[in-house]
Design a protein that fits this description.
By secondary structure, the chain is of the alpha+beta class. Helices cover about 35% and strands about 30% of the residues. It is elongated, with a radius of gyration of 20 Å.
């Protein structure tokens, strides 16, 4: 039995290692990536100043190709594509639904991640989500807190000195 498991594992490993096309990075427009990033985090920081990129695992019709797309956070702007089949780039990009993302728990996880990093700024929020539906402010012990509400994604961002410090989900 042990030999059978070892044999099956070896066959699986060889098939996975040599039976697949090599993964390559491309830019969002389909041109080959020529930067210096060695991993996805480095690539994200290369293509977006503070690495505010959402990595989407594309759902392709053929089910055989592996394609991941890095989108600028809160947008449907593709920044990079990792794939083993260059012809699947556009299908991978087209399979992304920004509205589904903005109303998902993945979006909340990304918000939390970038709040923790301190890289969600008022300028970035305006560039990606546009003007909020409602702006207000209050003071807490002489510290100004700005609140921006986006009804379409059901979220209110709290800013201090131009940096998102927290968010709440609204209905």
């Amino acid at each position: 039995m042990r030999k059978l498991i070892t044999l099956l594992f070896t066959i699986f490993f060889l098939n996975f290692s040599f039976g697949q096309n090599k993964l390559k990075f491309y830019m969002g427009d389909g041109t080959e990536y020529s930067g210096t990033g060695k991993n996805i985090n480095q690539l994200n920081n290369e293509v977006e100043e503070h690495g505010r990129v959402y990595t989407y695992d594309a759902d392709l019709k053929d089910g055989n190709s592996m394609t991941m797309v890095g989108f600028k956070l809160f947008t449907n702007e593709p920044l990079w594509v990792l794939t083993d089949d260059k012809s699947s780039i556009q299908e991978g990009i087209d399979s992304y639904n920004i509205d589904d993302f903005l109303s998902s728990y993945q979006c909340e996880m990304e918000i939390e991640k970038f709040i923790e990093k301190g890289s969600l700024t008022d300028i970035f929020i305006l560039e990606t989500l546009g003007q909020p539906n409602k702006k207000s402010k209050y003071y807490d012990q002489d510290i100004q807190i700005d609140l921006w509400t986006y009804r379409d994604i059901g979220t209110t961002f709290s800013f201090r000195k131009g940096i998102v410090k927290s968010y709440t989900k609204t209905e």
